[in-house]
Fold:
Amino acid sequence: MTPKRTRVPRAARLALREMRGRVAHRQRYRLVSQGWQYVGAMAIIGFAAWHSGTNLVYLVFSAMVAAFVGHGFIVGISLMGLDVRRGLPHHAVAETPVSIGVTLTNRRWFLPSYGVRLTDFLANAKPVGAAFFFRVDTKSSSETHYTMTFPLRGVYKLDRLEVASRFPFGMVERYFLVSQPQELVVFPQIVEVTEWLSRLQSYQGDLAAHQKGTGLDLFGIRSYNEGEHARRIHWKSTARTQRLMVMEFDREEQPKTTIILRNLVTADLRNDPDVVRDFEIAIVAAASLATQICKSNKEVSLLTSQGIIEAGSGSEHLNRILHALARLELVTTAKRWPSDAIDRKSIVEVRFRDWQPGEGSLADVELDARDLEIRSGKMLRRPGLVEAPPPNPTSSKRRAA
Amino acid sequence: MRFAYVQRLLLYTTALYGPLALLTTGEYSTLVMLLFMLVMAGSFFTQRRHIVMPDWLANVATMAVFIGMAALARSNLFDAVAYFFLFLQVIKLYAMRSHSDVHWVYTITLFLMIGTSALTTSLTFGVVFLGYLALMVFSLTMLTIQGNHEETLKRQQRFNRDAFNTFPSLALATAGADTPKRSRWVREPVRRLPTFADGNLRTSLVVFLQALTVGLLVLTMWLFLVIPRLSTQSVIQPMQRPTTDTESTSAFSSDIKFGELTKISLDPRVALYVRPLDEKDSDQVRLRGVALTRFTGDSWSRGGANISYDRLPFAPFHRPMPETKQHRYLMIQQPELDTPYLFGETFPQSIRTDRGLRFLFDPQNNTVRIGPHLPHEFHYTVESRGEDLDQRVDPSTLPRAGRFDRDETERPANMQRWLEQLRSTMGREDEGQNYRRRDQTWEIRDGYRKMCLEISDTLDRDRLRTLANEWTRDASTPFEQAHAIERTFRTTFGYTLTPEARGNIIEDFLYNKKRGHCEYFATSMALMVRTIGLPSRVVNGFVSSEWNDIAKAFVVRQSDAHSWVEIYFDGYGWMTFDPTPADGVARRTEMGRIQKWAGRLSDALRVRWYRYMIDYSFADQAGIIRSVLTTAFSIHEILNRVQVREPGQPWSFSSMGRAGSTVGVAVGILGAVLLMVGIALVWRRKGTKKVKKRNAASLVKFHTELMKKLNRLGLRLKSGETSREFSQRVVEKIPDLAALPSVIETYYALRFHGREPHAEEWRMIDELKVQMGTLKPRTLRQQNR
Structure:
C-alpha cells in the first residue's frame, strides 16, 4: 500500500513561492547623486525649521520628507512581483550589432510599473547592455531589446540582470539582481576576401563560374509552406491538386574546398600578443572564406589542430564552421587528422605565423592572414543599423534640454 | 504632445511659482514680480527655437547680478538674496542645456518657496504651496522617466564603447599598436518615449500621479502634525531680558493722537478672529486693548505706569470681585494687527499662549503687550469675566472687596471655586516659576489715582465741572453720576465719523457741535467724571458683532475699533462705561449675499489656517497626544464595560458617551475598510480584467491607411513588390518603424491564414499607429539628412 501523499494547501504553496521569489529578488536601495543633494537640502531646511520654529518652514520640510518617504515606498512597490527574462539570439557576429531581447513581467494586480531600467552583466560583472521599460501593466509582460556590438569572437557568458527603478522622483534607486546564466556564441567577424577568393577560384578553375547551371533541374514538388516565395509555386500542380504546391530544384555537384587553420603553437608563443592577434586575424580570414564559399553553394570543410568539420554546404553547415571558429583557441598539442580528411584538389591553408622547421604546407593555395586588411567599413551589417560618428556633446545636451 | 514637451511645460510652470510665491508676501512689487514671470515664460519659447544663452554670457550675467545684489545686501539682505535667486532663475532658464540645469531650476524655486515661507503667513501662500506641490509631483516624475530613459541610452552607448576599449577590435589592432583607442558609437533606432496622444497611457499615468499627490499631501499633513515643535528660539528667547520699552505708533499704542482711531475705523480688513471656546452666549464681543490715562489736549498717553516682566502662564488680570457672569474663554487669533498689545474681553483674568514670548505687563493699566519682537501672527487664550453693560450694579451696594483676600472663609462660593480652579491649573499661588501672583491690583496707588484725575490745562475745568454737575443733578452715588453722564451722551449727542469740531475740539464738541465719534465721547466723559472726583481712563479696543457661522468665531475688523471709558470705584475697582450712541458701536459692513458668503468662507479658512498651520505649537501636539491617550483609555473602559455587562442588558456605543461614539465610528470605518479589502481580494481572485475583443477587420483597414500614409511620405510600393519586401525597405529608411515588418506579418497571418492577432500583436499595432501619427514629411527629411 502506497502511503497517501500529503497535499500542501494552494495558499501555502503560493506563499512559499512568493517568499522564495522575494529571497531571490532581494531588493536594495541606492542613493543617487540627486538623492544626496535632496537629503542635504532637507537637512538644511529641517535645521532652519527647528531653529526658527516657523510653521510654514516646517510645512515645507514636512513636504520634503513626505516626498522622500513616499518615493521610497512607491519605488519599493514598483519592483515587487517583477520577473525578468533574457532572450538571446542563436548567435552573434563580432563587430556586428546584435539585438538581445528582454521581457519584463509584472505579476502584481494593483499598480503598473513605470520607468524600469534593466542592465545586463557578463559573468565577470561587466555590463553589456541596458534597456528601458516605460510601463509594464499589471498582470502583463512587456518586451524590448538592447543592441550590443561584440568586438571579438568567442563565447560570452551572460549572468546577472539588474532591474532598477527611480520612479517617481529619482532620489533613490531601488534594484534587485536576477541570476540567469546564459552563453552567447559570437562568430568571427566576416570581412571581404575578394582577392583571396580570386586566387582560390583561379586555382580551382570552375569556381569562377559557380552560378552557371545551378538549380535548373527539377528535384520534386511539395506543398507550399508559409513565407515561401511565390515564384517557386508550381501552378499546374496547384491547379491539379487545388492547393499550393512548390518546386524543389536539384543541386549540382560542386568541388569541395578544405580550409586548414593550424592553431598549434609552442607553449612560449601561446600568450604572445602578436601571435594572438595574428591568430584572431587568421580566424577572421578562415571564417570569411568559409562564408563566401558557402554562399556560392560550394562545399567546404574545416581542419584545425583540434579537429575536423566534414565537408558540407548550406547555412547550417556554415554555422557549424563558425561555431567551431568562435571557440577555437591556440593549443600546444594537436589531434591527428584522418587520412581521408583532406581533399587534395582544393586545399586552402590560412597561415598566421612563419613555418617552423619540420612543418610543411599541405595546401594548394596558401594565404597569409597577416596580409589581410580588416576594415570596419567592410563589415556585413544588418539593415537599419548604421555606423555614426560620436555625437557632439553640445547638441546632445541641447536635445536633452 | 511628446513626453519631453509636457515635461518642459511643467518645468517652466514650476519656475513661475518662485516669483508667484514672493508675490504673496506683499513685500515685493507686483509689477516687478509679474515682469520676472513674463521673462521666465519667454524662455520657454526661446528654448523651443533652440536659442540658448552662451555659457560665457550666462557666467558674466551671473557675476553682474551677484555684484549688484551685493550692493543691495547692505540695506536689505533678504531682498538681495531673493532678487539674486530670481535673476539666477532667469539666467538658468535661458541658458538651459542639461539635466543639471533643470535640477538647478527646481532647486532655486524650492529656495524661493522656503524664503517665502519665512516671510509670510498668508493663506494665499498655502494655496500657492499646494499648487507647487502638485506640480512638482508631476514635473519630477516626468523628469525622472525622461532622465532614466536618456541615461539608459547613454549607458548602452557607453557599454558598447567600453567593450571596444577593453577588447580592441581587429581593425584597430591591425592598424598598429600606437593607434589611440577611439570610441565606436552605434546609433540605435531611437526608442522614443510614448507620446501623450496615447489616451490609455495618459489616463493611467495622470490618475496615478493624482493619487500620489493626494497621498503625499496626507503624508505631509501628518508629518506636519507630528514633527515636534521644539525650536532653539524657545530656549534662547526666555533667557533674554527685555531691554527697551519701544513700540510702534498705531491706534493701539502708549501715545495716541486724537483721530488715530478714526483712520482705522474706515479699514474693513480683519484685525482679529475671536473664537469662544465654550458656547457663544453673547451677540457681541468687547475686546479691551490699551488703557490711557493722561490727556494733553490733542493726544492720550498711557502715563507713568510701571512695567514688569513675567513668564507664561500667568494671571495678570486679577480682580477678585463677586461674579455677575460666568468666566468665558476666548481664543484670539491676531493675524495682521500692527500693535504689540494683546486683547481680551472686558475684564480679562488670565492669558495663556503656547509660545515662549516675552510679555510686558502694566499692572496699573491692566494691559499686556509683547516685546520687542512681535510675531507675524499668533493666538492666545484669554480667560475673562464678561461684563454686560446692561447688568452693571452700583458698587456701593456690594460688600467691600478687600476683605476677601484677608479672610478666606468669607469668600463667596464662586470666588473660592475660581481660586481652586486657578490652583489646579497653574499650581499653587505662591510657588513655581510659571505663576507669580499679582498683588491686589484692584487697589490703585495714589500716584496713579492722581494721574487718573488730571485734567489738561487746555480745557476750562470749571465749565466742565458745571456741565458734569448739571448732568448728574439727580444722582446720589458715584455710580449713578457716571451712569447719568453716559446716558446723557448716548441720548442727546449724535455719532459721526467725520470730525466736525474745530479749535479746542473737546469743548467745541461738548458745547457746540455735539456730534463726533467714539474718541470724542470717551474723552469727554473721562474728563467730565474726573471733574466730579472719579478716577477714569480711556480704553481703546474693539467691539464686534460680526459672527461667522462657518468659522464659529467673531470676525473683528479694523473698522470695529472703538474707544470707551473705565471708571474706578473705591472698594470695587474699574467699571466699563460706553458713552458712544448705539449707532456708532459695532457697525456692520454692508455686503451682498454672495460677497457675504464668500467673505465668511474666506474668514473660516483663514481662522483654520492661522489656528492649525501658523499657530500650531508644541502645546497643540501635547493636546493631541493627550486626547489620543484619553480616547485609548476610554476604549479600554468601554471594553471592560462590555465584558462585565449583565446578560440581556441593552448596550450600544452611543450609550457610552462621547468616547463610545468615537469607538463606534472607528469600528464602522474599520469594518468598511475590511469590506473593501475583501471585495478587492475577490475581484483579484476572479481576475476580472476583461480584455475587450477587437475587430480584426480594423487591421486590414489600418494596412490600407498605412500604405496611403507611406505613400504621402514619399515611400511608394514598387511594381511587383510585396508588402513584406516593402516593409523591409521602409525600415531601412525609417528605423523608427522597426515594428512595421512584424505588423505586416500579422497582417499576412490574418489575411491569408485567418489567424487573428493576439494581445501583444495588437499592442504592437497600436504603437505603430502612434509612431505613424508622429511622422511628418518634414521629420522624415530631417532624419534622412
